[in-house]
Amino acid sequence: MPIYAYKCSACGHAQDVLQKISDPLLTVCPECNQDTYSKQVTAAGFQLKGSGWYVTDFRNGSASGAGAAPAAASGGDSAAKPAEPAAASPASA
């Protein structure tokens, strides 16, 4: 169930309410009992977690698994490439 933010334009009382999408809008303020309570427009707050999402696959610039194909297809970034040979040089020496 989504959480909606409500605010009273008369007294300024604000509250987050857990409601079903099909529930009717609240219009009466629980503080001042006036018919000036309205739903506010807020930004969605969610985060994609787990493997397979862009944030986890490309955050550190690693080219492993499925992450290697999109980086190679875009031509790569020359700023990200020097870090890989530097890591490979001590291993080969």
C-alpha end-to-end distance: 58 Å
Which class do the helix and strand fractions yield? Answer: alpha+beta
For the largest beta sheet, what order do the strands appear in spatially?
2-1-3
Instruction: Estimate the strand proportion.
Output: 15-25%
Tell me the number of strands.
3
Order of helices and strands: EEEHHH
Shape: elongated
How confident is the prediction overall: mean pLDDT?
73
**Largest beta-sheet details:** 3 strands, antiparallel
Number of domains: 2
Q: Which segments are poorly predicted (pLDDT under 50) over 5 or more consecutive residues?
A: none
Topology overview:
Layout (H helix, E strand, L loop, with lengths): L2 E6 L5 E5 L18 E3 L14 H5 L9 H6 L9 H10 L1
Antiparallel strand pairs: 1-2, 1-3
What is this entry, summarized?
23% of the residues lie in helices and 15% in strands. It is α+β, with helices and mostly antiparallel strands.
Structure write-up:
The protein is an alpha+beta fold and 93 residues long. It has three helices and three strands; from the N terminus they run E-E-E-H-H-H. The protein has two domains: 37 residues, no CATH class; 35 residues, no CATH class. A three-stranded antiparallel sheet has the order 2-1-3, with no helix packed on it.
List keywords for this structure.
93 residues; 3 helices; 15% strand
